[in-house]
């Protein structure tokens, strides 16, 4: 995508997002949470793994705004650091899925025929498994580490990206400028990268924003059942699991990280709606 095209796209998105306050608010909240995760070493008031048994399940106070967990650790600090883990896993896994799935979708749509049938058959097989079940199987086989968690979540998202990239590629490869490129002797690789990819990138980005929320939810779910990042590393799903047994005595142990997950998922879905509107030709000139 050229610099001129990218500037026009971002300008169009900014105008539509500003007029659609929900999309603007979603993007703003998602950005704030991303910045908080990046700046966790400076924003978190305490070490997320520092224990004080005297403050075990203590309620909110001036020193600990959200209270302490079952080990006396500061809940606010663990939520901030947990967001760093959850967002890192989500962004990395979706970026990997977008790269692999988008490449497979472009290859299937561009070459068609046997290549298309083989790739799409594999993608259909992957889509037959729910994302959480597929992630559970992969993590169970590879082991619960951060790297394996990223691979597992990326594996569940490859098929949707392949399908969303294939459909517009089928239409674009019939356009006159593609035929002109072939007539000029351009290689298939150059045509796919320079001419096909920029024309389908907007649809891939919309799907990425929506699947990022799904990736964060999947990471939290796997951490909740003990197949996520190993303790004592703070993750939102792990915090919910740790506080579940004491939910009646200290409901904040479960409620606070759950609210963090809910906020980021709503924000990303609102942002995804804004991106979709920005890429819709019917809305570009409203």
Automatic annotation (TrEMBL):
Example of a GO cellular component annotation carried by this entry: plasma membrane
InterPro entries to which the protein is assigned, alphabetical: BP-dependent_transpt_permease (IPR050366), MetI-like (IPR000515), MetI-like_sf (IPR035906), OppC_N (IPR025966)
Subcellular location: Cell membrane
Source domain of life: Bacteria
Classification via CDD domains: TM_PBP2 (cd06261)
Regions that span the bilayer: 87-113, 125-143, 189-213, 253-272
Example GO biological process: transmembrane transport
Ranges for domain ABC transmembrane type-1: 83-272
A Pfam family assignment: BPD_transp_1
Keywords noted in UniProt: Cell membrane, Membrane, Transmembrane, Transmembrane helix, Transport
Keyword RNA-binding recorded: no
Membrane topology recorded in Swiss-Prot or TrEMBL: Multi-pass membrane protein
Gene3D superfamilies xrefs: MetI-like
Family to which this protein belongs: Belongs to the binding-protein-dependent transport system permease family.
Name this polypeptide is given: Peptide/nickel transport system permease protein
């Amino acid at each position: 995508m050229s610099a001129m095209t990218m500037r026009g796209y971002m300008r169009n998105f900014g105008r539509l997002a500003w007029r659609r306050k929900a999309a603007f608010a979603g993007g703003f909240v998602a950005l704030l949470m991303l910045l908080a995760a990046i700046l966790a070493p400076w924003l978190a008031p305490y070490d997320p793994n520092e224990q004080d048994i005297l403050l075990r399940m203590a309620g909110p106070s001036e020193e600990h705004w959200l209270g302490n967990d079952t080990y006396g650790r500061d809940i606010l600090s663990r939520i901030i650091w947990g967001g760093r883990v959850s967002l890192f896993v989500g962004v990395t896994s979706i970026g990997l899925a977008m790269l692999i799935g988008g490449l497979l979708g472009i290859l299937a749509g561009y070459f068609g025929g046997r290549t298309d049938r083989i790739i799409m058959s594999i993608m259909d097989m992957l889509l037959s498994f729910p994302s959480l079940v597929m992630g559970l199987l992969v993590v169970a086989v590879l082991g619960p580490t951060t790297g394996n968690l990223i691979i597992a979540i990326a594996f569940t998202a490859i098929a949707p990206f392949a399908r969303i990239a294939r459909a517009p590629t089928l239409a674009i490869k019939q356009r006159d400028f593609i035929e002109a490129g072939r007539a000029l002797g351009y290689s298939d690789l150059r045509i796919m990268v320079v001419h096909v990819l920029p024309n389908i990138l907007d649809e891939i980005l919309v799907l990425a924003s929506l699947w990022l929320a799904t990736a964060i939810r999947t990471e939290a779910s796997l951490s909740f059942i003990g197949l996520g990042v190993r303790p004592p590393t703070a993750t939102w799903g792990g915090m919910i699991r740790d506080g579940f047994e004491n939910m009646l005595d200290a409901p904040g142990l479960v409620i606070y990280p759950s609210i963090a997950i809910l906020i980021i998922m709503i924000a990303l879905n609102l942002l995804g709606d804004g991106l979709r509107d920005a890429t819709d030709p019917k809305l570009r000139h409203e």
